[in-house]
Specification:
Distance between the termini: 28 Å
Shape: globular
Protein name: L-threonylcarbamoyladenylate synthase
Strand content: 15-25%
GO molecular function: ATP binding; double-stranded RNA binding; L-threonylcarbamoyladenylate synthase; tRNA binding
Pfam families: Sua5_yciO_yrdC (PF01300)
GO cellular component, one term: cytoplasm
Largest sheet: 6 strands, mixed
Number of domains: 1
Organism: Desulfacinum hydrothermale DSM 13146
Structural class: alpha/beta
Length: 227
């Protein structure tokens, strides 16, 4: 149970947004530790301020997400990306120039200070710059980043129609930024970059960006890939 038409969710704050304008009330809410559902350039996202461990715990609970599966971030701008990572080689910049803002998530060694539920056991963090104005505005309200995981219960498919969001999930969040039906149905592509003097990478998840485009930019085939 939990998937399907959202119907009428009691006491849900729902803002219908136009041209990516985020209401000040929603920005204040997320800045104070609220958890929101919001549109991205791919599917609807679920998130809140990443430096608040209570927010992180709520997101895991809202999604019924297994502990130990780190949450990805959307950064407001490249400077925020650089602050979040411990290593930023020229080939990461080449991918950023080619695909950002857009649906390519990069996995890189994390800078110190991030909550453990954002960092993998290998010490990496996953993040991107979205081409949709809403997550970028929310990230700005949270100091440069926002958690942006897909707005679905764990094990269920991502959602691009706000009317198909899980009622169970919506009963657990603080608000919905309704951007209408989204164009894409697939999440971002996730690519991990391995430290070293030469580009080495693997495709963690296939998505909206074709991995062959990543290989073309880096000039090397992946060391491994998703099934």
């Amino acid at each position: 149970m939990g998937s399907g038409d959202m119907g009428c969710v009691k006491n849900l704050r729902r803002w219908r947004i136009d041209q990516g304008r985020v209401p000040e009330e929603a920005l204040r809410l997320v800045g104070r530790g609220g958890v929101l559902v919001f549109p991205t350039e791919t599917v609807y996202g679920l998130g809140g301020c990443p430096m608040d461990e209570k927010v992180i715990g709520r997101i895991f609970s809202i999604k019924d997400r297994p502990v130990g599966k780190p949450l990805p971030l959307v950064a407001a701008h490249l400077e925020a990306v650089r602050r979040a990572v411990a290593w930023w080689p020229s080939w990461a910049q080449a991918l950023a120039d080619a695909f950002w803002p857009g649906p390519l998530t990069l996995v890189l060694p994390a800078a110190p200070g991030f909550p453990r539920d954002l960092v993998s056991q290998q010490g990496t963090i996953a993040l991107r710059i979205s081409s949709h104005p809403v997550p970028k505005r929310l990230a700005d309200a949270c100091g440069g980043w926002i958690v942006a995981t897909s707005a679905n219960l764990s094990g269920e498919p991502p959602v691009r129609d706000p009317n198909k969001l899980s009622k169970t999930l919506l009963q657990r969040v603080d608000g919905l930024l309704d951007g209408g039906l989204l164009e894409k149905e697939v999440p971002s592509t996730v690519v991990e970059l391995f430290p070293g003097e030469m580009p080495r990478w693997r495709c963690v998840r296939r998505g909206a960006v074709d991995p062959t485009g990543v290989a073309r930019i880096l000039g090397v085939e992946p060391a491994g890939s998703a099934d």
